[in-house]
């Protein structure tokens, strides 16, 4: 609204300027002759002609060019100032210069203290010291917001050190918590500028568990990844991200929680085959919440609130009193296969490779859009190259102009606008005619009476009448011109606003498939450049064209009325101009469309580069990405330059035709010199030059209007994109629906597009009221697709019932607002913490603080200077990923719907926080139906039932304890893959829950449970004490 208000003010000023251009000469002529006559002089035709010609000659410079020059200079100064302010911002200093490789690729951190924001009293990191040598693995653990990711940022140089130093010897590779993939092939994402070496590449794919995924893709690793990797699952993006770092063969590896986005089996594979084997000679730091891997570490660093609260080897920490034995499994009790070839201590590090690093963006918390994973039944959307941006062809249809004006005003207002245009031009011509009529009448009344003394007498007209009429016509010209300009700008700016809103609403209601097939650059292009044309250039150009066209009509009408012979040269000239315009537009229209589409890749590349900026800087790939940007920019510049040359082509030909016409007029005057006087020749040449200038400008502006209407055409194209089902339907559920929370799936098939492969197949299941259901399966099994079907992100086949209402018959708003979801990717918006928790001001401060307390965030928010009014950066980037997930959970607690979906919501939080959150969920949502997707099996082991998906099919659905009694069940195998000790603990927990629910009078072997090597609750209390 603020932007529209400013655009409207700016447009009114432009309208006034154009109106002044239209009437300035008339006002000046009026003031001149009024003063001249009132001083007692008599006007004549010669004086009128000279004055009108003089003021017409200077009006273009004074009323159009000079104000335009001031506007452009001021815009240029603002742009220069903005660029200057950007360029003088602090640059990231190379905090840790990467020294040349030597035999000792050591990473040393000494007394490190850092601040993200120095306005905060507490530093982000405080007095951190450690040394990691080649072949060593340092595992960093700690609760949410402890500073684990910030530590890696400091080593990369992204977080400046206030005190202490960091020394990194050798090249660095960085795997970020949120993976970043760019538009291109899978292979390009992994190679990242390195040469392709088949043997090494295959080893990397196997180490990162990507081999099967590549085999399932139609084009293998040459398959195109969409913008932001939308067609890859979260786990696949995380593994591609890890593979990129491994292939770089760097000396130092910084791994920020790469295991949370994958299931237990894949996590184990990545740790054993990638971190412990492929990187076994490297200097490696791993941030993780997967505490079962701690015994494999050379060193362990425990952080809390940015401080070091524990450091040393696994055995040293055990001896120091931090009882990891109760927190985790004992090494001798775990699978020996966990660390191949390691009888007592894991076979670890000793690394070498050479150069680069990785930062990323896009959630690694994701468990996917359920894309290609295991079985070749291919339940996933097949990855293909993104379709090219659509381009219309041919001329702009009348329907586009009609819709454009209809978006700005109703037919009555458009009629008023048309009438004002006609009246303004009539008044404009009438003023000249009245001045001419006045001069002629004065000439007729000029009589000379010869007396004896030869005295001359001159009769004069009624000055009051002629001056009054002249003033009235001039006032009418001014009034109609200003009203015409202001109303035209009001209508066209209003049209731009409405088209923008329509496009925005259309994009909001577009199906998910639309965003999968259209890169962000395409959408940004239409919302920025095309809407910019509608706001700025089109109203100005359109009004200028209308004024010029009406002036031409007025001049020609007057000329024809006086000298009908004028039509003889004008008609063929007009035909020639129209032919030239049509020939020009046939080319310029398509070049303009090409220019608009070649701008999209520039936006996409810029957006993608900003998302992965830390990765690019860590890999020292800035130059390569600048060259890619230059390539995209050059392609757009070629199209833009071609468009400019076509405009010059038209201008040269129009100028040539005008010059020829003036020359012919001049030579014609010479041939008829005997029959014409000097005044007539001057008038003919003056009108020839004026008329030709107007003709030429009118043709050019009409062509420019048509070219700018391409932006309207492109905006309208996005207002007509395919939409989801209606927001509201005639069948409305009761206000308290769903009161029970019963969900029934009946033979459900689901695909993300009409012609896409099925990602859910013949799924039938009943989820009872208040039931807690855990949903598990390998990456790509269909877990997130089940939720997508429930929310109708695409229309499922079959039937889904919620409390006896068929979801396909409900409006999407009624359906979705009644289901809370804590998504894989935490979604926060720019604004205050309060607005993120309560966007519609529905809850009290007490309720907001209670929700934050229940997710363990109250203390962290209270420490901030502005508390609930703290401004969140874009996507909430000033909070850790784990904290963002907790904010989403707090939002769900406030909403308190009967159905809650938890999609990997605690993947990026520490075990203690996870346990507390699970407890909160059990208490706060005891009366709700809860569906939980999780890779951490301890999160869902106490569910009422477990739903096991595989290749889009429901393979198992029963109570956890019953499934664990079936040794052939997929769930039993998944539990066994986490290791013997943890599997034993999970089985005991399932047993406790089963007996407590079904046989409360029977107490299962509680002694065995108490003596279990993994007593989760006790272990977590010990862990919390250590922190």
Automatic annotation (TrEMBL):
<feature type="domain" description="ABC transporter">
    <location>
        <begin position="107"/>
        <end position="330"/>
    </location>
</feature>
<dbReference type="InterPro" id="IPR003593">
    <property type="entry name" value="AAA+_ATPase"/>
</dbReference>
<dbReference type="GO" id="GO:0015431">
    <property type="term" value="F:ABC-type glutathione S-conjugate transporter activity"/>
</dbReference>
<dbReference type="InterPro" id="IPR027417">
    <property type="entry name" value="P-loop_NTPase"/>
</dbReference>
<feature type="transmembrane region" description="Helical">
    <location>
        <begin position="678"/>
        <end position="699"/>
    </location>
</feature>
<keyword id="KW-1133">Transmembrane helix</keyword>
<protein>
    <recommendedName>
        <fullName>Multidrug resistance-associated protein 4</fullName>
    </recommendedName>
</protein>
<dbReference type="InterPro" id="IPR017871">
    <property type="entry name" value="ABC_transporter-like_CS"/>
</dbReference>
<dbReference type="InterPro" id="IPR050173">
    <property type="entry name" value="ABC_transporter_C-like"/>
</dbReference>
<feature type="domain" description="ABC transmembrane type-1">
    <location>
        <begin position="415"/>
        <end position="707"/>
    </location>
</feature>
<dbReference type="GO" id="GO:0016887">
    <property type="term" value="F:ATP hydrolysis activity"/>
</dbReference>
<dbReference type="GO" id="GO:0008559">
    <property type="term" value="F:ABC-type xenobiotic transporter activity"/>
</dbReference>
<feature type="transmembrane region" description="Helical">
    <location>
        <begin position="566"/>
        <end position="584"/>
    </location>
</feature>
<feature type="transmembrane region" description="Helical">
    <location>
        <begin position="411"/>
        <end position="430"/>
    </location>
</feature>
<keyword id="KW-0472">Membrane</keyword>
<feature type="transmembrane region" description="Helical">
    <location>
        <begin position="49"/>
        <end position="70"/>
    </location>
</feature>
<dbReference type="Pfam" id="PF00005">
    <property type="entry name" value="ABC_tran"/>
</dbReference>
<feature type="transmembrane region" description="Helical">
    <location>
        <begin position="21"/>
        <end position="43"/>
    </location>
</feature>
<keyword id="KW-0812">Transmembrane</keyword>
<dbReference type="InterPro" id="IPR011527">
    <property type="entry name" value="ABC1_TM_dom"/>
</dbReference>
<keyword id="KW-0813">Transport</keyword>
<keyword id="KW-0547">Nucleotide-binding</keyword>
<feature type="transmembrane region" description="Helical">
    <location>
        <begin position="650"/>
        <end position="672"/>
    </location>
</feature>
<feature type="domain" description="ABC transporter">
    <location>
        <begin position="743"/>
        <end position="976"/>
    </location>
</feature>
<keyword id="KW-0067">ATP-binding</keyword>
<dbReference type="GO" id="GO:0016323">
    <property type="term" value="C:basolateral plasma membrane"/>
</dbReference>
<dbReference type="InterPro" id="IPR047083">
    <property type="entry name" value="ABCC4_TMD2"/>
</dbReference>
<feature type="transmembrane region" description="Helical">
    <location>
        <begin position="465"/>
        <end position="483"/>
    </location>
</feature>
<dbReference type="GO" id="GO:0005524">
    <property type="term" value="F:ATP binding"/>
</dbReference>
<dbReference type="InterPro" id="IPR003439">
    <property type="entry name" value="ABC_transporter-like_ATP-bd"/>
</dbReference>
<dbReference type="Pfam" id="PF00664">
    <property type="entry name" value="ABC_membrane"/>
</dbReference>
<dbReference type="InterPro" id="IPR036640">
    <property type="entry name" value="ABC1_TM_sf"/>
</dbReference>
């Amino acid at each position: 609204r603020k932007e529209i208000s400013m655009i409207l003010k700016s447009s009114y000023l432009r309208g006034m300027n154009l109106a002044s251009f239209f009437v300035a000469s008339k006002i000046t002529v009026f003031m001149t002759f009024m003063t001249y006559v009132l001083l007692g002089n008599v006007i004549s035709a010669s004086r009128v002609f000279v004055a009108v010609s003089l003021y017409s000659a200077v009006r273009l410079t004074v009323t159009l060019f000079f104000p335009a020059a001031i506007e452009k200079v001021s815009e240029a100064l603002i742009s220069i100032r903005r660029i200057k302010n950007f360029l003088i911002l602090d640059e990231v200093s190379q905090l840790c210069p990467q020294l040349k490789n030597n035999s000792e690729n050591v990473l040393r951190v000494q007394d490190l203290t850092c601040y993200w924001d120095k306005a905060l009293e507490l530093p982000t990191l405080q007095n951190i010291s450690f040394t990691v040598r080649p072949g060593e693995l340092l595992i960093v653990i700690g609760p949410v917001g402890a500073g684990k990711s910030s530590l890696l940022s400091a080593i990369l140089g992204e977080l400046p050190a206030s005190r202490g130093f960091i020394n990194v010897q050798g090249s660095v590779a960085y795997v970020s918590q949120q993976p970043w993939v760019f538009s291109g092939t899978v292979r390009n994402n992994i190679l990242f500028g390195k040469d392709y070496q088949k043997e090494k590449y295959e080893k990397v794919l196997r180490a990162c568990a990507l081999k099967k995924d590549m085999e399932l893709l139609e084009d293998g690793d040459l398959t195109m990844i969409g913008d932001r990797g939308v067609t890859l699952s979260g786990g696949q993006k995380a593994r591609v991200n890890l593979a990129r770092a491994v292939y770089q063969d760097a000396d130092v590896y910084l791994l920020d929680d790469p295991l949370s986005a994958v299931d237990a089996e894949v996590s184990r594979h990545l740790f054993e085959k990638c971190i412990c084997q492929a990187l076994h000679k490297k200097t490696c730091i791993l941030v993780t919440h997967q505490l079962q891997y701690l015994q494999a570490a050379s060193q362990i660093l425990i952080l809390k609130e940015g401080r070091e609260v524990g450091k040393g080897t696994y055995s040293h920490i055990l001896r120091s009193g931090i009882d990891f034995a109760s927190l985790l499994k004992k090494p001798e009790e775990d699978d020996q296969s966990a660390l191949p070839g390691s009888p007592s201590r894991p076979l670890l590090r000793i690394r070498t490779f050479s150069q680069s690093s990785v930062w990323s963006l896009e959630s690694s918390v994701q468990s996917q859009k359920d894309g290609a994973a295991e079985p070749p039944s291919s339940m996933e959307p097949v990855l293909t190259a993104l379709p090219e941006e659509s381009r219309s062809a041919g001329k702009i249809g009348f329907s586009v102009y009609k819709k454009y004006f209809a978006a700005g005003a109703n037919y009555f207002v458009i009629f008023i606008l048309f009438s004002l245009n006609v009246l303004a031009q009539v008044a404009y011509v009438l003023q000249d005619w009245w001045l001419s009529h006045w001069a002629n009448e004065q000439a007729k009344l000029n009589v000379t009476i010869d007396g004896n003394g030869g005295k001359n007498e001159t009769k004069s007209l009624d000055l009051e009448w002629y001056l009054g009429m002249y003033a009235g016509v001039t006032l009418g010209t001014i009034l109609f011109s200003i009203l015409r300009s202001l109303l035209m700008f009001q209508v066209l700016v209003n049209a731009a606003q409405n088209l923008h809103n329509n496009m925005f609403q259309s994009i909001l209601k577009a199906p998910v498939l639309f965003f999968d097939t259209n890169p962000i650059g395409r959408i940004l292009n239409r919302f920025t450049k095309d809407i910019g044309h509608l706001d700025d250039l089109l109203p100005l150009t359109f009004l200028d064209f209308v004024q010029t066209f009406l002036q031409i009509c007025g001049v020609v009408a007057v000329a024809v009325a006086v000298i009908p012979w004028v039509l003889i040269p004008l008609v063929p000239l007009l035909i020639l101009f129209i032919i030239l315009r049509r020939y020009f537009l046939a080319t310029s229209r398509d070049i303009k469309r090409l220019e608009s589409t070649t701008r999209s890749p520039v936006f996409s590349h810029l957006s993608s580069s900003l998302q992965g900026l830390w990765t690019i800087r860590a890999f020292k790939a800035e130059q390569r990405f600048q060259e890619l940007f230059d390539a995209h920019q050059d392609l757009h510049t070629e199209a833009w330059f071609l468009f400019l040359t076509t405009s010059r082509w038209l201008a040269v030909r129009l100028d040539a035709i005008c010059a020829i016409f003036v020359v012919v007029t001049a030579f014609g005057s010479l041939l008829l010199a005997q029959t014409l006087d000097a005044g007539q020749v001057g008038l003919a040449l003056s009108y020839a030059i004026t008329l030709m200038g107007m003709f030429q400008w009118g043709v050019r502006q009409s062509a420019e209007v048509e070219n700018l209407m391409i932006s309207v055409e492109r905006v309208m194209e996005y207002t007509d994109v395919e939409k989801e089902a209606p927001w509201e339907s005639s069948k409305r559920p009761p206000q308290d629906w769903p009161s029970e929370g019963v969900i029934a799936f009946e033979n459900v098939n689901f695909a993300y597009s009409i012609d896409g492969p099925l990602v859910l197949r013949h799924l039938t299941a009943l989820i009872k009221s208040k039931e807690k259901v855990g949903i598990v399966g390998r990456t790509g099994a269909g877990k997130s697709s089940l939720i997508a079907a429930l929310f109708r992100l695409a229309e499922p086949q079959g039937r889904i019932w919620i409390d006896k209402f068929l979801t396909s018959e409900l409006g999407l708003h009624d359906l979705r607002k009644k289901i809370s979801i804590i998504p894989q990717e935490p979604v926060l918006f720019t604004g205050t913490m309060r607005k993120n928790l309560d966007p519609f001001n529905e809850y009290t401060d007490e309720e907001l603080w209670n929700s934050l307390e229940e997710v363990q965030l109250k203390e962290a928010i209270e420490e901030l200077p502005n508390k609930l009014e703290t401004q969140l950066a874009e996507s909430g980037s000033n909070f850790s990923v784990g904290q963002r997930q907790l904010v989403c959970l707090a939002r769900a607690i406030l909403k308190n719907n009967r159905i809650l979906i938890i999609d990997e919501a605690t993947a990026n939080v520490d075990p203690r926080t996870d346990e507390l959150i699970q407890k909160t969920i059990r208490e706060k949502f005891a009366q709700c139906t809860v569906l939980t997707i999780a890779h951490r099996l301890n999160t869902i082991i106490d569910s009422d039932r477990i739903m096991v998906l595989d290749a889009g099919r429901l393979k198992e659905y029963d109570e956890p304890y019953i499934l664990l009694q079936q040794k052939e069940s997929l769930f039993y195998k998944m539990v066994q893959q986490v290791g013997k000790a943890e599997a034993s603990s999970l089985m005991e927990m399932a047993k406790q829950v089963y007996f407590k629910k079904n046989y409360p009078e029977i107490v299962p072997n509680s002694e065995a449970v108490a003596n279990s090597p993994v007593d989760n609750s006790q272990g977590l209390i010990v862990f919390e004490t250590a922190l």
